Every structure is written in structure tokens, then in C-alpha cells.
Amino acid sequence: MKLSYKTYNLPFTHPFTISKGTKTHQPTFIVELEYFGVKGYGEAPAISYYNIPVEKMMEDLEAKRTLVEKFSFSDPERYWHYLHHLFPQNNFLVCALDMAGWDLFGKMRRKQLHELWKLDTAKAPLTDFTIGIDTVDIMVKKMQEKPWPVYKIKVGTENDIELVASLRQHTDAVFRVDANAGWTLDQALHKIPVLKELGVEFVEQPLAKDDWEGMKVLFEKSSLPLFADEACVVEADVAKCQHHFHGINIKLTKCSGITPARRMIKQARELGMQVMVGCMNESSIGTAAIAQLAPLLDHVDMDGPLLLSEDIARGVDFDNGRIVYTSGAGLGIEFSGFNDAI
Ligand code: MG
């Protein structure tokens, strides 16, 4: 296989704020794997609070480039195992390569991945559109700029309730909230019943990621379903979430790709939990990978291309929240970003 990679710094339409901080751009790492003339692409956005900048992905990849390239590719799951042992400390890099392996695999078989997996795309849930933390006026303005059937509202401040109540005055859309580990147990116990009254459908990561005792109490008392995000990063975390959360939010980048994400979905189902896949502000490349899994999910948050003001590929469109699939093979993307690569 021949390996190439590129980095991009994708600008957000609006500065994006969650309870962990604000950012104006999303750095992202794109890989290309070429095998007998077929090219597959994968993506991993860099996230500062996980301490894996794009430079770290480049450095780790260069250190083992020949090993990555000499693999005799037959199927993506075998490739993931190889990569997982090659880069045990860099799930983000493994995700980008795993995704490229799946894109390649689908293209070699001339089928989109959801077709290979025999999934019914009509079952894919609507994607939400995320409203980052801001003043109420700006949050209302962002919502009105983007009429949408499902909004994910970032919370985790003193005035969460006032904020959601203000937004509710402007729309009947479904709301879900993401506290990004920003509440204490007492705050969550107080806020959740009020949010339910305001038409919120579920809460993502209410408490600190390691507050399992708090989650056990909240799980028993919460009138809204609770989804793990920061508390459910890799496969080993899924079982821990049972009886603490009603569902899990899987991120491809954090769990190390499509291959482990499929296993996590299966395991969560076996444990009676709901499943969503979330994004980390990927371009249309990583977002198209989420679209392939969407028919397996209860909820999906794949609005990266909607929040970014520049995209680098085509491959996934939305019609009022509904995913519009392309006809291409693999991830179903069109990307020419490596045409000028050396
Ligand atoms: Mg989240």
C-alpha cells in the first residue's frame, strides 16, 4: 500500500463553545491509502483535551510508515488489529487508517459500506444540529439561521434552564442537551426534571466522566435517558456504562475507528443500552463514515459539515436532518485533496 497524509485547519462558521472552551478552527488529519490503484480516505480531527494534535499523528505515522505500507490488505478488520498493535497509544491515528481501510474495501467491492453490511438507510435517525454555548440572543440567532427538526444544545453553565426555556420560546423542535461533564449530581437532579418539562429528550454526559457513583444515583432517579460520552471512549468502557447510563455516544476518533465502533454498537445492544454516534467536527470524510453506521443507531449527531464554513470533500448531504446518501462506493465520498500531493 502507498500512504499519503495531509492536515487541514477547518474554520467554523461561528466560534464553537462547549463547557471545556472555545475554538474557531478544527485541525484535522486526512490519510490516503492506495492499493493497486484504488484509493481510500480516512479522517481524524485533533482534539486538544485528548492531547493528540495533528503533529503527533504525523510523527507516530512517520515512525512506522513502512510497517503501515507493507501490510497485505485483505479486510479492514484484520487491518485494524494490526494498526491497534502498531499504535496502541494513538487511537486517533488508528481511526483515520481504519476508516481509509474501510473506504478502500468498499471501493474494491464497488459497494457503499451500508450496502456491504446490508443496512436499511431508511432506518437512519435524523441528525441533530448543535448549538454551542453563547449568550441567549446569539444562541437564538444560530437556531433561527438553521431551521432544523432536532437541536443538540450545549449546556453546563449557571443559567442552563433559562437558556433552554428561552430557546423553547422560538421553536417546537426536539431538544437534546449535552453537559459535557459540567454538572454536579445535585445540579443534575435539579435540572433534569425541568429540562424534561421543556421538551428535552435526553441528556449527554451530565457528570464528570469518572463519577460512576453519582451516575448510579442519577440513573435511578433521572426522568430523562442519560447518554455516556466522555465516560464511554473505548470498547472496554461499554460494559461499565450499563446501569449507569441508558445509552452510549460513540465517537469514531476516540474509539479508534469503524471496526471497534461496530463492536461497541453490538455490545451496547446486547446490554440493553441505546446507541448514538457523535461527531468531533469532522469534514464530510469522517461524517460520511458516520452515515454508513447511522441505520444501526437510535440517535446521530453528525453535523460537522454544517458547523464548518469550509469542507474538503463531498459525500454526505442533509435534507432537514435526514441523511442524503450518495451513490459512490466505500464511504461514498468525492475527494481530490491529494491530487497535488507529492
Ligand atoms: Mg458529547
Which descriptors would you attach to this protein?
eight-stranded parallel sheet, 2 domains, 342 residues, alpha/beta, three-stranded antiparallel sheet, globular, TIM Barrel, 14 helices, binds magnesium ion, Enolase-like, domain 1, single chain
What's this model, at a glance?
The protein is an alpha/beta fold and 342 residues long. The protein contains 14 helices and 13 strands. The longest helix is centred in the N-terminal third of the chain and has 18 residues, at 91-108.
Describe the structure.
Helices cover 38% and strands 24% of the residues. The chain has 342 residues and is α/β, with parallel strands linked by helices. It has two domains: 2-110, Enolase-like, N-terminal domain (Enolase-like, domain 1); 116-324, TIM Barrel (Alpha-Beta Barrel), CATH 3.20.20.120. Strand 10 (274-278), helix 13 and strand 11 (299-300) form a beta-alpha-beta unit. Helix 3 packs antiparallel against helix 4. The relative contact order is 0.15. The mean pLDDT is 95. Bound molecules: magnesium ion. Magnesium ion (MG) is lined by residues 178, 180, 204-205, 229, 249, 278. Residues 178, 180, 204-205, 229, 249, 278 line the site of magnesium ion (MG).
